[in-house]
Amino acid sequence: MSLKVRAVLVVVIGLVLGLSLSLGSGRFGSGQSPGNEELAFEQARLFAEVLERVKRDYVEPLDDAELMESAIRGMVSDLDAHSQFLDASEYRDIRISTTGSYTGIGIEIDEVDGKVVVVTPIAGSPAARSGLRSGDQIVAVDGVALETSNLHETIGQLRGHAGSKVEVSVLRDSDVIDHEMRRQVIRVASVHAEFLAPAHGYVRVSQFNENTARELRAAVDDLQNAAGSMLDGFVLDLRNNPGGVLDAAVEVADLFLDAGIIVSSEGRSLDSRFKRSAHRGDILDGAEMVVLVNGGSASASEIVAGALQDHDRALIVGTETFGKGLVQTVVPLSKGRAIKLTTSRCYTPSGDSIHEIGIAPDVYIDDTPGHPDLSLSGAVDREADMQLAEAIGHLQARPVMHSKAQ
Q1: Global pTM?
Q2: What is the pLDDT of residues 36-92, one digit of tens each?
Q3: Cα separation of 350 and 398, whole Å?
Q4: Among the options 130, 190, 206, 299, which is catalytic?
Q5: Could you give the angle at the alpha carbon of 307 between the alpha carbons of 277 and 123, nearest 5°?
Q6: 221 noted as active-site residue
Q7: Active-site residue 299, yes or no?
Q8: Which of 363, 378, 391, 134 is nearest to 241 (CA)?
C-alpha cells in the first residue's frame, strides 16, 4: 500500500473514530458498540484498498483530488435524490438562486421512480418557452442519453454559460421530443398581480425565494390602493410553482393567517425539528380566498396550500400537488464548498405528511387541455382556464366577509 493511500486510510479511520466518540458522547445518539467500530474500521480499510486499486489500474491517470471529490459526491448523492455535495461554483449557484436569479434553462426537476422528471418549467424561462411540461421525462441532454438517474449530474448538464445552446430530449406519451434552447440568467423573484373584478385580486407566484413575501405584500397593497378599499376576494395562483426557500413559504402563509401552526418538521438533529407559527395580521382582513394548485405545485407551494387549507383560510382548487415534503439544509464547508443535505420531513398543521402524498384540492378541476399560459407576462385567461374560472365563480358566489369591524 502506497504512502499516499496509507495517509488516506489514517484520515478515514480518524474520522470514523471521531464520529464514534461524538456518538458516544450522546450528541447524536447512543455510542457504537465495539463490533460496529470494528466494522467501520474494516470499511475504512476497504475504501483505501479500492482507492489504491483505482489509482493504479484505471485505464487513464486520475487526479487524487478528483477521486476524493467523486467519493464524497457518491456518498452524499446515494442518500436520496435531493442531497448533494456542492463545489464552490455549485454552492455559489445555490446562494444566487435563493436570492432570485441563476443561469440555466429555468426548470425544476426531480427523481421519480428512477427517472429524471420535470416538476415544472419556471414561468418565462427558456424551458417554458420551448414547451417543456410538468411530467416530461428527461431522457437525453445534447444528444447524450442519461445513463443514470443522477439528479445532480443532470442539473450540471443543463447549466452553462448564458447564451450557450442546449438540447433537452424528453419522453412524453411514448414520444421523444427534442427541445433546443439557449441558457440565460433566470430571474425568479417574480410576482404577477392583476384584477379579476373591481374588488377581486389575482396574484401568481412563480417560485419562492428571499424576496417573495415582500413582493407579494407589495402586490396586494397595490391592488388595494387601486381598488380604493380592501379586496373582497383574492386568488393566489401556485400552479407550476416548484417551491424554493422554506422560510419564504412560511412568510407567505403568515401574510394571510392570524394564528396557528403553518408547518412542522421532524428530523434527527435539534435544528431539524421545528414548528413555524403565524403572527397576527391578515393582509386581506379575512376576505374570501382561493388557492390554485396542480401537479407542478411542489415543496414550498405545498406548505402554503396545506397551511391555508388546514386553517380553513382558503379554498384549494385544481389537481393534487407534486408531493415533495423533504427539507434540505445547505451546510457550508471549507474552501467555499457545501453539502445540501436532507435533514427533515414536513407536515401540515393537521400533522399530515406532504412527501409522496401532496395536497388534495377541496375542489378538483383538471388542468385545462392546451395548458393555459402561466407566465408572469400577459393577462390571465378567465374563460379558457377552467381552474381559474372555478375560483372566480366561487368568489362571485360568496358574500363579502372581513375579519375586523369596518
Answers
A1: 0.71
A2: 778 877 888 888 888 888 888 999 988 888 888 888 899 999 999 889 999 988 888
A3: 26
A4: 299
A5: 115
A6: no
A7: yes
A8: 134
